[in-house]
Amino acid sequence: MAVSEVAREDSRLSALGYRQELSRVLSLFDNFSVAFSYLSPMVGIYSLYVIGLGAGGPRYIWTIPIVVGLMTLVALTFGELASEYPLSGALYQYGKYNVGPRYGWFVGWIYGFALLATVASVDSGAVSYVTDLSNIWFKTHLNPSDHVTIFIVAGAIIVLSALLNSIGAKIMGRVARFGVYVETIGTFGVFIALAIHGFHQGFGFTFTTQGVEHVAHNPFGVNFAGHWWTGAALVAVLANVYIFFGFESAGDISEETVDAQRQVPKAMRNALLYGGIASFVLVLGLLLATPKSGIGSIVSGGVPVILAALPSWLQDFFLVMVIIAFFSCGTAVQGAGARVAFALARDGAVPASSQLKKVSARHKTPTNAIIVGTIVPFAFLLLVLVNPSRNYHILWFDYPAHINALFALVSFATSGIYLSFFLTVLGALIARRRGWKPSGSFTLGRWGIPVALGGAAYLFLMLLNIVWPSSITSGRGLLFNYGWVTLLVMVVIVAAGALYEGLARPDRSVSEHRIEE
Predict the structure, then answer these.
(1) How far is the C-alpha of 346 from the C-alpha of 501, rounded, in Å?
(2) Count H helices, E strands: the chain?
């Protein structure tokens, strides 16, 4: 960087009460790559395509531009905040400066938990693909549903990600860059390969529902009483709601990004836009390749049923791409979660802050915070052992059979993200009402309030759609939030934070590190 640019970056950090400790080595493309790898179209689509298709039919593809368009409002608001406060910990910092120390701490608590739960969910999601590849190449007989197999494979991925994250931000950026290349091949490449092999459906197929709104034709046996827009669509849209976030991680690594005030807002927008395009192309290819027999076989067998039409060597190639995408995504999320832990520790806002805030003299990374980002997901992995064989009645609701507790935590990961997003955008609106005027390199001007209001409305409505308790035989309850489970997990984590905050009062320490502007 030019001397003047270094001075400007250091000056802004100093004005916010911090000094440059981390290594500022990430370019715009590196920053974008981390955000895009976290969003990861391949991980999202390969994990949720069957649910979206089964709940909403082929027409569910058109919820992608709706979700991406509305989430862009959030990305624009975050861009203003990232430009104003280019600090590690992103959402925590935004809440701290916009509303106050206690508000910011709660945002950081919720967001940090959601990130570390996401690490466990992403890395455990890779297990079935890793075991498939091992069984094909090495003639093993690994069972992807075996608890020990899940723990060992996912645990190994978590440790490898931690090692790479610890070596330096530049390595994290390179892993993410590679992830972008893989995602591009794995989305556009699958579309091209399926097109060459020959599509079985016409474009008009994407506008059909295949009768999924009626229980007699729904592959999951879910009854939407014949209503698509007010029934099936509200559940199917969640398959995309669960994908299109992660762009905010560009802000988590602001202190390691060159010219962060200008580059981070760009990276956020670009990651979301490119992620939306790549996802749409991949889903379109999968839909057009649906066999004439209909969507039933796809819902029962998953994406591999479609890819089975390709040559075996090409199937193996795309399988490797999927595994790399999962690994890149998990590494990016772990890196973001570690930065949130580091930011909280630097302000003395979590237990053992004096240790967690330490930065490696050699690698300039928050090594101890990365260790936390390793241990906590490992602990979450133990939840796969809780897998009841029948429904358990707890108080006034049922915990569903064959849903391990890790899945329940995964459902919190998305609801926690959306709650922290909503609180952040709400905080920006509160700050504006108090007289705050964004002064960073990126501002929305007179559009700031309308954009933030639109983003807040979207986040609030989707948060309700995610957590709203439904019967476990309904679409939402069966496929996403398991009745009351997601809402109660979120309430428990927020309540635990409230208890700790009330007893330890970390906001007092945070207030000492909050520079009034």
Answers:
(1) 17
(2) 23, 2
Query: What is the greatest pairwise CA distance in the chain?
Result: 68
pTM for the model: 0.96
Amino acid at 209: T
CA distance 497 to 508: 15
- Render pLDDT for 33-58 as a digit per residue (tens, 0 to 9): 999 999 999 999 999 999 999 999 99
- Judge whether 457 lies within some domain: yes
Cα–Cα dist 506/510, whole Å: 6
pLDDT tens for 439-463 read: 999 999 999 999 999 999 999 999 9
Q: Does residue 18 lie within any of the structural domains?
A: no
Q: How far apart are CA 398 and CA 483, in angstroms?
A: 8
pLDDT of residue 8: 83
Q: By C-alpha distance, which of 204, 202, 223 is closest to 212?
A: 223
Is-contact 265 442, C-beta < 8 A?
yes
Structural domain includes residue 13: no
Q: Is residue 240 part of a domain?
A: yes
Q: Which residues contact 131 (CB under 8 A, 6 or more apart)?
A: 140, 142, 143, 144, 149, 153
Q: Which pLDDT score is estimated for 517?
A: 57
The rounded distance, in Å, linking the Cα atoms of 350 and 221 is 46
- 2: tokens are 């030019």
Contact 219, 296 (CB under 8 A): yes
The two three-digit tokens of residue 207, written as one number: 């506008």
Residue 333, amino acid: V
pLDDT at 100: 96
pLDDT in tens, 149-178: 999 999 999 999 999 999 999 999 999 999
Secondary structure of 288-326 as H, E, C letters: HCCCCCCCHHHHHHCHHHHHCCCCHHHHHHHHHHHHHHH
CB within 8 A of 349, min separation 6: which ones?
Answer: 105, 108, 506, 507, 509, 510
388 contacts: CB under 8 Å, gap ≥ 6: 399, 401, 402, 403
How many other C-beta atoms are found inside a 10 Å radius of the C-beta of residue 17?
A: 14
Q: Are 73 and 451 in contact (CB under 8 A)?
A: yes
Whole-angstrom Cα distance, residue 236 to residue 515?
A: 44
> In this structure, are residues 115 and 38 in contact, taking their beta carbons and an 8 Å threshold?
no
Tally of structural domains, the chain: 1
Residue 215 DSSP code: T
SS3 190: helix
User: What's the CATH code of the domain at 261?
Assistant: 1.20.1740.10
pLDDT tens-place string over residues 333-390: 999 999 999 999 999 999 999 999 999 999 999 999 999 999 999 999 988 888 888 9
The whole domain housing 37 covers 25-512
Q: How many CB atoms lie within 10 A of CB 62?
A: 16
